[in-house]
């Protein structure tokens, strides 16, 4: 597997810090996902071999934690917070609008590979819900109409960018 040299260096530094190699499994999953975008079967086997574990030991971690992905994400990775404060502020309506605008069902990637739409849990900005992340940018107070604006900007290539609604 082709990991960046800096990822390998981080892994080599990290593993000896843990009392047992198995304890490094979750951090390694994050590092490899950061490098590759997702955790393929090859990546899972690589992590297992690096930690002298069986692939099933890594697979069970990958399937347990929702932030670990086994499929590549679209060009725009759109995440809608659905924890209670955002849900009460209308996160489900916002997400439905995004589904329509992006032609992408929540939990999936659009057929053209442009958009991945997912629910996530609290982003610790509960007073400004619904909170939407596009890539690493956070957008606050996103009601369905603002969701339509964001969708239009993503489609036109204006986003990801620096605008925020607050
Ligand atoms: S509930 Fe959405 S940011 Fe906290």
Characterise the protein shown here.
The chain has 166 residues and is of the alpha+beta class. It has two domains: 5-64, Arc Repressor Mutant, subunit A (Orthogonal Bundle), CATH 1.10.10; 76-156, Glutaredoxin (3-Layer(aba) Sandwich). The protein is built from seven helices and five strands; from the N terminus they run ααααβααββββα. The protein has a five-stranded mixed β-sheet with strand order 2-3-1-4-5, with helices on one face. A hairpin with a 5-residue loop joins strand 2 (108-109) and strand 3 (115-120). Helix 1 runs antiparallel to helix 2. The radius of gyration is 18 Å and the shape is elongated. Residues 161-166 have low confidence and may be disordered. The structure holds FE2/S2 (inorganic) cluster.
């Amino acid at each position: 597997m082709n990991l960046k040299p800096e990822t390998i260096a981080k892994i080599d530094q990290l593993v000896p810090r843990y009392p047992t190699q198995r304890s490094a499994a979750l951090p390694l999953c994050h590092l490899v996902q950061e490098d590759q975008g997702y955790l393929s079967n090859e990546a899972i086997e690589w992590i297992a071999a690096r930690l002298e574990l069986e692939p099933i030991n890594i697979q069970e971690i990958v399937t347990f934690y929702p932030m670990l992905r086994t499929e590549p994400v679209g060009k725009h990775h759109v995440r809608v917070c659905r924890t209670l404060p955002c849900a009460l502020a209308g996160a489900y309506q916002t997400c439905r609008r995004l589904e329509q605008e992006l032609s992408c069902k929540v939990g999936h990637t659009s057929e053209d590979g442009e958009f991945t739409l997912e629910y996530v849990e609290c982003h610790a900005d509960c007073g400004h819900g619904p909170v939407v992340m596009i890539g690493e940018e956070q957008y606050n107070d996103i009601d369905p109409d603002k969701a339509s604006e964001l969708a239009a900007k993503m489609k036109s290539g204006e986003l990801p960018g620096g605008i925020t609604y607050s």
